[in-house]
Write a structure and sequence with these properties.
Blueprint (H helix, E strand, L loop, with lengths): L8 E8 L5 E8 L9 E4 L12 H9 L3 E4 L18 H17 L4 E6 L1 H12 L4 E7 L7 H13 L3 H11 L3 H13 L8 H4 L7 E6 L8 H9 L4 E6 L6 H4 L1 H15 L2
Parallel strand pairs: 3-4, 3-5, 5-6, 6-7, 7-8
Antiparallel strand pairs: 1-2, 2-4
Helix pairs in contact: 1-10, 2-3, 4-6, 5-6
């Protein structure tokens, strides 16, 4: 798709769920009506719409596509999620919450762009709903738990014992911040996920698949993106982002935008 010009329009939404709960979402629309397949962003374990910062607008501008981001239940401006995350939370996102976002925005097909665990959710959705997924883009997505993952999580868990670190997160999640941190660290350091592998969530992905990985990702070695590339049954590309850690779209946004724009230009109308 050709890059859009002019002013982007950002519009906030609340997506209704069962039992009266809601998800917060935001869309960025190109100045001209977008005919190209839209992009839906799935955030990481500490993420939210606001924590994508300027990336969604830049992605919409670069691709000329509508971009939608949403806060998962329990995150950002979405409603509170009670209790611990269930072991099935990745599958549930693909089966229940993401379809609600599709319904609200009247999307029949979309490109799914997932950061970190959002990448696992994107792959799971593509595996379960191939007709709805035009392509998948993952960055820094976990395929399994390795020693580097455990070290990174333990360090993060210790850092969030300091009040100032948690206060920074409260700017995005409010009083849900402690739940957000515990849901991340306790889930991935727990016994259930010690033997987890993304192939159990997404045995195969048939649509075009772009796998992005920072060369210095503090949570995963290159075995992680290689495992994602093996899921693909269609066109796939693995891009290593140089001088980059776990958040390529923030650390090296130009490289990510170029890779995504080129890939979608070749494979998705």
């Amino acid at each position: 798709a050709a890059a859009a010009s002019g002013v982007l329009h950002a519009v906030d939404h609340f997506v209704p769920l069962r039992h009266g709960r809601r998800l917060f979402a935001r869309e960025w629309r190109p100045p001209q009506p977008a005919k190209a397949t839209p992009i839906v962003l799935l955030h990481d374990s500490l993420g939210s719409v606001e924590l994508w910062r300027g990336f969604p607008a830049a992605l919409a501008q670069a691709t000329g596509r509508q971009v939608v981001a949403y806060d998962r239940l329990g995150f950002g401006r979405s409603d509170v999620r009670d209790g611990v995350l269930p072991p099935t939370f990745i599958k549930e996102e693909a089966e229940h919450y993401l379809p609600a976002v599709f319904d609200h925005f009247r999307l029949s097909r979309a490109v799914l762009f997932g950061h970190s665990v959002g990448g696992a959710m994107a792959a799971a959705c593509a595996s379960r709903h191939p007709e709805a997924c035009a392509a998948v883009v993952t960055e820094g997505a976990p395929a399994f738990v390795e020693d580097r993952t455990v070290r990174g999580l333990r360090e993060a868990k210790a850092n969030f014992q300091h009040a100032e670190q948690l206060d920074r997160l409260k700017r995005y999640h409010g009083e849900k911040a402690r739940w957000v941190v515990d849901a991340w660290t306790d889930t991935w350091l727990g016994p259930v996920y010690a033997a987890w592998h993304v192939a159990t969530e997404a045995p195969a992905v048939a649509c075009p698949f772009l796998v992005l990985q920072g060369d210095s990702d503090e949570y995963g070695s290159m075995q992680q993106p290689e495992a994602y590339a093996k899921l693909s049954r269609g066109p796939s590309q693995l891009v290593v982002v140089r001088d980059c850690g776990h958040v390529p779209h923030r650390e090296q946004p130009d490289a990510v935008l170029a890779a995504v724009t080129d890939f979608l230009g070749c494979h998705v109308s």
